[in-house]
Write a structure and sequence with these properties.
- The protein is of the alpha/beta class.
- 33% of the residues lie in helices and 21% in strands.
- It is globular.
- Bound molecules: zinc ion.
Length: 309
């Protein structure tokens, strides 16, 4: 049966933001047309995937495509035998999970699959803070720290997908003896500046630290150094910073000032001189950046595909 909603307004898209701590599901066509949503905690793979399938099941016949933006590492290559899998994640129980395949088999729709940050980058390009641009980076600073990038209107994959959270930044061991939380590198950017790193260094969760606590200047320093590396490597036209840590909005002016300071006038782009307030910005889609990004993935997929059985 074709639902009434589809007859009225064309194709509907399924969107799944598969985060390490929570999943957000939605059905709709865009930010102004969300027909249904659900949000639940990430538990074991079988139970969490079943919960998502149960949400989408009533809309199954109306869906043209589904997009999934997931935590990783993952396999985003449609030509790979493990396309759609969460691969070598340290998250207990989730390594080698065929997420996209499970959704495709259960719902009979084509599935687009990418990192949560690539999805959010696409969503901000489609509907948010990067409209009318074609090169941008979306960074999340939360439980993890990662970045997705679009260059000339295409999301970057390459060898696997970018892992911008695991670059090195200057670490003054005298000023900050904290060794970092990354299980692979210790004091990479994620190890020094993610939400868990903040909590481990200061003994309390970031959101409980006052705005004048020295934690924030240190946090802004690490993030600024990370962003400068990204600016030098990819020359993005905008940097969008989301995730739970960036809800501390006082970080934005600190980060902008420090990026300006670290670059030291070398890159003579107006956006970095007088326009930095609109160059380093929060996501215009706010906390919906992830799930709307997943919907944007589905939109990109749908014109070239037909519904499978
Ligand atoms: Zn690392």
């Amino acid at each position: 049966m074709i639902s009434q909603t589809r007859k009225r307004s064309g194709p509907l898209y399924g969107a799944l933001e598969a985060g390490g701590t929570k999943w957000v599901c939605a059905v709709g066509t865009g930010p102004d047309d969300i027909r249904a949503t659900a949000r639940f905690a990430t538990t074991a793979p079988g139970a969490t995937i079943a919960q998502a399938i149960a949400f989408f099941r009533p809309h199954q016949d109306a869906l043209t495509a589904m997009g999934i933006g997931s935590f990783g590492p993952l396999d985003p290559d449609p030509g790979s035998p493990t396309f759609g899998w969460i691969t070598d994640t340290p998250k207990p129980g989730w390594a080698q999970t065929d997420l996209a395949g499970a959704m495709r088999r259960a719902l009979g729709v084509p599935v687009a699959f990418d990192t949560d940050v690539n999805a959010a980058a696409l969503g901000e390009y489609q509907w948010g803070a990067a409209q009318r641009l074609d090169s941008l980076i979306y960074i999340t600073v939360g439980t993890g720290l990662g970045g997705g990038a679009m260059v000339h209107g295409r999301l970057i994959h390459g060898l696997l997908h970018p892992e911008m959270g695991h670059i090195r930044v200057p670490h003054d061991w005298t000023a900050d003896p904290f060794p970092g939380t990354c299980p692979f590198h210790g004091d990479c950017l994620e190890g020094l500046a993610s939400g868990p790193a903040l909590e481990a260094r200061w003994g309390q969760r970031g959101e409980t630290l006052p705005a004048d606590h020295p934690a924030w200047e240190l946090e802004a320093q690490y993030l600024a150094h990370g962003l400068v590396s990204m600016i030098c490597m990819l020359s993005p036209q905008r940097l969008i910073l989301g995730g739970g840590v960036m809800l501390q909005t006082h970080l934005f002016p600190r980060i902008r000032r420090l990026v300006h300071h670290v670059l030291n006038g070398y890159i003579r782009a107006p956006a970095l001189i007088d326009g930095i307030d609109t160059y380093i910005v929060p996501p215009a889609l706010g906390e919906r950046a992830g799930v709307l990004g997943a919907m944007a993935l589905a939109r990109v997929l749908s014109p070239n595909t037909t519904k499978t059985q």
